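Page 37, top half.
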Amino acid sequence: MIKNYFSIITILCYLTSFSQTIVSTDTENKKVILEEYTGIHCTYCPDGHEIAQSLKDQYPDNVLLINIHVGGYATPSSGEPDFRTSFGEAIANQSNLTGYPSGTVNRQYFPSLTMNGGTAMGRGGWTTAASQVLNQSAYVNVGVEATINVQNNELTVHVEGYYTADSPESTNYLNVVLTQNNTLGPQTGGGMGSDYNHMHRLVHMLTGQWGEVISTTSSGSFIDETFTYTIPADYNGVDVPLSELNVIAFISETQQEIISGAEYTPTFDGLEYSNDAAVMGVDENLNGNCGETASPSVVVQNNGYDPITSLSIEYSINNGSAQTHNWSGSLGSLESTSIELPSINYSPSDTNSVNISVSDDDNNENNSDVFYFDQSSSYDTSIITLNLVTDNYGSETTWQLTDSSGYVVAQDGPFSNNNTYSIEIEIPSSEECYTFTINDSYGDGICCAYGTGSYSISDDSSNVIVSGGEFSSVDSTTFRVGESLGLNSFMDEDLKIFPNPSNGVFTIKTTLNNSTYKVHNLIGQTIKSGFINSGVNSIDIRNSIDGVYFITIESKSGEKIGYKLIKN
């Protein structure tokens, strides 16, 4: 609900006759209001975001950004966030845009830059248009300030305007816009998949679609208006962190041309403490952690008035030995940050506990907490099978399997469209963590917008390790291979391979008879195989290209071991 505390006050007299507080009465140049029309499925929109942000970085006080998610590219697929508003379509329609990303600069018409005879321009014209507007004189100045009461989520916005000259229009319009920053979500293009950081999103217009009427627009007129608005917990199901909101106020001649504006990041009322750091959680990516070390990331929020510039963080896993990490930075009221902690050793169990505590402050009730994560699943297998069904764009799909040190065990792709593949991959060694990663270069996964692609990985007993298909740019799973490969009988005293790396000739010395071996490349193809007997054996792969290979050796009794070979 919005309430106007003061009607628009117009006073045609000297400056001393009114209580101007936040708006300048000197003639100023216009500020740029760049409204960018964008969408989460727009491939080139991240490039538009970058151009807009570069303008903002160059003129931080004079360029105001409003990202409007609108059109077909903004329509979310199943499970995706909806960043659209009830205001965006009308604003976009009046611009005559014909593609995305596009944008308007102060809703002005630039004949040499127009996209379709209207105010909309392609991203290549924004910088030129902005430089022109920044050099134009404004006949009205705008000032704005805002506070949020954290007890009831009530936003109070105070706007002032001062006319340094007559407007050519007898009626102008005051607009108050609410935007939201730092929302992680999907984005085609940009290379971030579902972790793209969406900035400057239009979430609400406090003054309605086209603003509130200013009825007196002559030189010396003073505008003083206050609005209140209760901020909801979410817009279209997307959460609203109060610290990520921004207020923009601007005055337009009609619903088109904008003269100038101002922006303000709200301050907060209703906080209980001056110094109050709260432990909010740990990185959910700990789930499925593989191995006996972990690097938790703790989320800390500032619930106090004063900025937090340093913290001492103590942490442990499964009540093991604690470590301390000293963090420094700057965290304003109600802001939060994720702090990656140095790696710590622990004794894994199926479910593990993480104990986190931060320095004492005015409120110690929220300074510590315990969080839980599951260990990765373990499989006793010597071969995994990848079953892959590509969508209409198999040429966008690639995959790779890496070990815990980052070495690529196997990889393949791109693939043919609408095809089915079954690929066996030999596991080089047990007691090892492997990560399977599938990529879609377009950023829409392999199901279900353009075909019903899918993938699954199974062990040699047909147990499914992972399956999927609906993702953005990347889908990744880590799993552990256990002790089924019989390593206890294949230790250093039984088998040695040297030199490694080599020029392609490897010597194998062993006490075992009647063993077999296979050497395979990174896409799982066997390039050499044969027998190994007790004594000294030689394997020659000099005809193969330089790189990483894997050798799997199987004893007469069926026990296996794998080694990494490096040819250079």
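Page 37, bottom half:
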Amino acid sequence: MTNSINELESDAKCVFLIGTNTTENHPVIGYKIRQNVVKNGAKLVVADPRKTELAEMADVYLPFKPGTDVALLNGMMNVIISEGLADREFIESRTEGYEAMAKVVANYPPEAAAEICGVDAADIIKAAHLYAESEASSLCYAMGITQHTTGTDNVKSCCNLALLTGNLGKPGTGVNPLRGQNNVQGACDMGALPVVFTAYQAVTNDEAREKFEKAWGVKLSGVNGLTLTKTINKAHEGEVKGLIVVGENPMVSDPDLHHVEEAFDKLDFLLVQDIFLTETARKADVVLPGVSFAEKDGTFSNTERRVQRVRKAISNIGDARQDWEILCELSTRLGYPMSYNSAEEIFEEIRTLTPSYAGMTYARLEGKGLPWPCPTEDHPGTPILHKEKFNRGLGLFHAIEYLEPAEVPDEEYPIILTTGRSLYHYHTGTMTRKAKGLDAYMSENVVQINTELAKVKNIVSGEVVRVTTRRGSIELKAEVIDGIRENVIFTYFHFAEAAANVLTNADVLDPVAGIPEYKVSAARLEKI
């Protein structure tokens, strides 16, 4: 997030939610947005194929067709430019690339954008006015924006909209990705990406690489690694022979699960480090038991970039070990001796190599923690990014054309399938599906179907139906609702026995980020 969570409750005069079911997937943030709307009269714009809880109270609800995000955002920007609502002073003083962006956006008048997206042009116009004319507008998105073959384009379009209206660098504004798990931000900060060291220092950058080589006493590759999906593909092709999986369950979470299973079966060796015997761990040659959050010391970095201490509440159970201890012993046995005495000692190394964490110490993180960047020990942390300037100097507009999803409906597969999360379960259900209380609320998967589509198919709520794509089929209960587009069906990905990711597409990825298109698959719905 460029801004902080609490601003969504107090400072934002307008909140634009796109590709995020906030109250279910980020309940605390969803609550704060609701409070701002109810108590302060903040304006709310929601764009989502399903009528989510916050969509019910929105000033404008845009039930747009999955995969048409760029067209929708370009349509809003067309209105903002053509009606003189752009922040010309901000554009001229703090950005570049405006003319190229504006030239493309000119091709998306609200009527044309509305036809692509399947919404009313009047609602695109109203949404554009609310976002551009409010004193401070915050844009929030989640995986409904990123999990597309055009995910990078979608994010750039969100940034274009914020730059166009000057909604960056001040309270209540910003482009705010809501992270899907508690330490996704921290994992990325620590270099758990195949192209960077900590703090997004590129592995291809000679100076950065030399710094880490000096600290660790080894030569490091300057070649970018493979993303998760590409790694699975390389295993399937026989190029990747061994895999270590730590705290992840790709046998439920990855797209095209038949393909994933075939890839794992071709490996010479699979090691899984986790707290339960997950679907992936069942396929492993060796399983190493790690520890849960309650058994850990260390730090988590949350969605607003805030680095916070976590403290061990209970001792390790059974033979389980700290994750870092397991990794250190593995490294040592593989020929690179690695030894630390504590999580704090590791953090001290992190901050010497990570400019955005350099000013943090365990003592300074007491209480509420600190948002990065925090470059020195007398720095207060940075709750709002880009106040005076952007990291690159000027903010860069991108000229983005709308591209269709990799799969669009046809005669054989006439419906769009999209997937997501439930309030009651977390990721692949490794923990939550073992909780009796949560299981009582949602014990099995369902597919949400529009009332009109259900009538055509003669389907009623509670009966088992079949959903099929080019990858496979699953059978699950129907949930007939009004609050979803007529030609769209939705299901959850938490349930291994009716796994949504049997259906999703791994063949075509976002060309920049390598993200699969979980949010759009051409599907067929059948009454059994």
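Margin note: The domain at 7-178 is CATH 3.40.228.10 (Dimethylsulfoxide Reductase; domain 2).
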